Amino acid sequence: MMKLHEMSPNAGSRKRRKRVGRGDSSGMGKTCCRGEKGQKSRTGTSIRPFFEGGQIPLFRRLPKRGFNSPDHKEYELVNLSIIDANFKAGETVDIETLGAKNLLAKNLRPIKVLANGEITKAVTVKAAKFSAAAVAKIEAAGGKAEVVE
């Protein structure tokens, strides 16, 4: 059995730190691997990302595009296949029950039900929005689709 004081690291697993400025014979003396002059040879310098040496950077050369509406609402999307797989007939599907079964990424957003997949059970679905095809499939299975704010 190996004892704690007998253990040693594998060869090459622990790399020694680079000690610069310790004489020319070390290979890292004088300029300390930084070259001669220039911005990157100085101490304390940092160049921000996408800096192009004073040239107008790419993100400023390209025109601004698009528009972000302040009234845009994001919805948590739920497909009928998820509802069919996780709920029994007669149950109510809403934001609380979906959150309790960990079927929502975020509980903060309102829900929109989409018609992806089939539903075979009569369930009551309460959501902020429904696609027209989802309402048709829910009602065809004998369930109810209720719009809730």
Identify the CATH class of the domain at 76-147: Alpha Beta
| Overall pLDDT metric | 92
Shape: elongated
Q: Tell me which CATH architecture of the domain at 76-147 applies here.
A: Ribosomal Protein L15, Chain: K, domain 2
Query: What name is given to the CATH topology of the domain at 76-147?
Result: Ribosomal Protein L15, Chain: K, domain 2
Distance between the termini: 67 Å
Order of strands, widest sheet: 1-3-5
Q: Your description of this structure?
A:
The protein has 149 residues and is α/β, with parallel strands linked by helices. It has a domain at 76-147: Ribosomal Protein L15, Chain: K, domain 2. The protein contains 4 helices and 6 strands, in the order H-E-H-E-H-E-E-E-H-E. The chain has helices spanning 58-61, 80-86, 95-100, 132-140; strands spanning 76-79, 92-93, 111-114, 124-127, 129-130, 144-147. The strands form 2 sheets. A 3-stranded parallel β-sheet has the order 1-3-5. The chain has a 3-stranded parallel β-sheet with strand order 2-4-6. The longest helix is centred in the C-terminal third of the chain and has 9 residues, at 132-140. It starts with 57 loop residues before the first helix and ends with a strand. The model has no long low-confidence stretch (mean pLDDT 92).
